[in-house]
C-alpha cells in the first residue's frame, strides 16, 4: 500500500490560513538581511514574543521565560548533552538508534520525492520528544514552494496539535538558521524542526556546530531536514537518509501506518550504520519497527 504521509505538508487550507485550519500562531517571515546567522532584529523580536506566549500557555510555561531563555550565543562548550558526552549511547539509553534524542542536533537527508517522508519522520519525533511542549518549525521558502507548507489537518492526523506549533518562514538559509538557533535557546521549547532546501552553502560545518552547541545547552532537540542535498559531514549527533516505505494494511484492510525507510549514516553514540523500516503509530505516538520485506 502506498505511504500516506504527504498530507501533513499539503492541502487546500495550509496551516497559516484558511477556514479549516485550526488556530495557530501567525507565521513569521524573516526579513531580507543576508548576514550569516542573522535575521532582521524586528523579525527575531516577533519570534521571541511569540515563543514567550506559546511557552506561557503550556503546562511547562511560566512567567520567567527570559530567565530560562537567555543562553548566550553558542561559541564554546560540549557538543552533546552531559550523558551523551560521557559515553551513554542513544541505542543503550532509548532502546534504538533511530529514537532521536533530545538535547542534540540530528540531520535528516532526503531527495525531493522523499521530502514529505523526511518531514513526516521529523514530525513523529517532534511529537514524541516535545510531549505537548511547543514545536518551532523553521521553513525555507524554497522548500515550501517545492513541497508545500505544513498543513494543520495533516499534522493533527499524525498526532501533532497545530495549536502547539509555531511556523517560521524564511527567505534565505542564513535567516532560517538564525531563527532556528534563536528558538532552540528556549529550554521550554520541545523541538525545533528546520526545513532547508538544496546544497545551502550557509549550512556548513560552522553552522552545524552552532546548532549542536545550542541544542546541548538548552536540551532542545533540533531536527534538520535537508531536502535535495547530499549528506555531508557536520556536528550532528546522528546523520540519516530518509525515504518513504510502503504501508502495510491493517485489520479489515484499514489504511496502514505511515512507514519510513531510514538509514543511519553516522552516530556519535557508536551505533553502526544500518537501515530500518519504521512505522509511525498514531494512537501510541511512537515508532515501531515494520517488516523489511
Automatic annotation (TrEMBL):
Domain of life, source organism: Bacteria
Region (Disordered): 1-40, 64-93
Polar residues bias locations: 1-10
Gene3D superfamilies reported for this sequence: P-loop containing nucleotide triphosphate hydrolases
UniProt protein name: Protein ImuA
Upper taxonomic lineage: Bacteria, Pseudomonadati, Pseudomonadota, Alphaproteobacteria, Hyphomicrobiales
